[in-house]
Design brief:
Layout: E1 3-5, H1 12-16, H2 25-48, H3 50-66, E2 70-76, H4 80-95, E3 98-100, E4 108-113, H5 118-137, E5 142-147, H6 153-162, E6 168-170, H7 178-188, E7 192-196, E8 215-219, E9 221-222, H8 233-237, E10 241-242, H9 245-257, E11 262-266, H10 283-291, E12 298-302, H11 311-319, E13 326-328, H12 336-341, H13 348-361, E14 366-373, H14 380-393, E15 397-402, H15 420-441, E16 449-457, E17 464-469, E18 474-478, E19 487-495, E20 499-504
Parallel strand pairs: 2-3, 2-4, 4-5, 5-6, 6-7, 8-11, 11-12, 13-14, 14-15, 18-20
Antiparallel strand pairs: 1-7, 9-10, 16-17, 16-19, 17-18, 19-20
Helix pairs in contact: 2-7, 10-11, 14-15
The structure holds 5'-deoxyadenosine (5AD) and iron/sulfur cluster.
The site of 5'-deoxyadenosine has 12 residues, from strand 14.
Length: 506
Amino acid sequence: MTIKKDQFTYEKSSLFQDAPAREPERQLYFCARVKDLMRARFEENLASGEALRRYGEVQLKQMEESGACATFHIETYGCQMNAKDSEKLSGLLIQAGFMETDTEEADFVLYNTCTVRENANLKVYGHLGYVHSLKKKRPSMLVGLCGCMMQEAEEVEKIRKSYRFVDIIFGTHNIFKLAELLFDRLTTGQMEVDVWEGTSEIVEDLPADRKYPFKSGVNIMFGCNNFCSYCIVPYVRGRERSREPEDILAEIRRLASEGVKEVMLLGQNVNSYGKTLSTPISFAQLLRRVEEIDGIERIRFMTSHPKDLSDELIRAMKESKKVCTHLHLPVQSGSTRILEKMNRRYTKEQYLALVDRIRTAIPHISLTTDIIVGFPGETEEDFQDTLDVVRRVRYDSAFTFIYSKRSGTPAASMEDQVPEAVVKDRFDRLLKEVQQIAGEVCRRDLHTVQAVLVEEKNSHMEGFVTGRMSNNTLVHFPGTEDLIGSIVNVYLEESKGFYYMGHREV
Ligand code: 5AD
Ligand code: SF4
């Protein structure tokens, strides 16, 4: 493990001498220490009247009721992994005496960044400009940056130089250290930068603040070994590391005991789960064991790499009563020539044959995908192959992306970058095709009764709730808040293209 650490002149050992060396005890200790520091500040602010000005009556009352002494806000970009990391970060902050707010006007604002495409980075810089203006008005405010973008040395350098108001920077490998970094920042007054280049450490059993009480993501592995030639993920998330099955199962059992009905097993490439463990286990075997856990009614997973999707997994999905009828299977391109340059390690024909095997075993499954348009060297003929795959597979939905040049990846130095206008035109044609097919496919369950997990009150229609079918399609129907978190039968009476209107069957 390499640790890149800012060289500051202060002597840390005196501040940290009581801290336990072991995790997670060490981080729980720092949560308590940060809470003490924040409480002292809060009490000063209460006495001076600043607290009332800062938080307003309503928020201040909420803080007092929950025992919080500061507020935080996390802006999360990117994938499900980041969303899950943000739940862990929130959990640590709550433990450290913070309460969540929904705007950036908070005592601590943290940006959990993504760097998969360039516009994700640009968004972060836009927000930094805004938060700087807030910090000028409230200098005690803390600003943090973490996530994939921070694993890139040039970005960290740029922030160090041009965004001096940032207080802490850390990467994807040490999110568990948030409280320690905050303590460090609060006691030294220095910008705290702690980005690890990699790790073999997986710290378990820290608090997490789950967004929904009835469903939860569960990390089963971290990192990626695939090195698709356009993708920065293997460089910023490191090599593949699987969690021990017993740790995963224990976490899911605990979630089930807390009322969670649906789990989403998370990894960049779940199909290669378990291969590097000292006692290897396949992803299909893991699924079968999750299936046995009482209380869990739905199992989802993300993301599957087509090259590793085994017949054993298709069988496990077919035989399962809990695995949802939805599979996200990124194709990226329909052209074998481009797939090879992308280092995807399957051909157009192999992908289509895999889809056939899946559909033969599970005819009603919904398939979704990711597609990149404008990869270097993509010709009109290659693009036609992508359209051909879209027409043959008939996806329920597809995330379509314009190729973004990520420096450090092999594709960034490939010749024949496709002109912007050509890419834009292809992108528009692809989107039209995808949307038209999705609109047709998504109505396939019209006039049937489906099990729906109710997720929230409908924010647009009074007296309605919104839930998801097993295949991930949204359904709106008349219902009350007390249904949230339960699975109910809903008759699908009208298809609106990408969602249904229905009514409850009792
Ligand atoms: N440009 C465009 N899209 C990309 N993705 C990953 N890297 C890039 C890139 N450089 C897309 C892929 C991946 C999804 C998460 O993001 O389609 O599946
Ligand atoms: Fe990136 Fe490919 Fe790994 Fe997915 S499988 S994270 S696209 S390198």
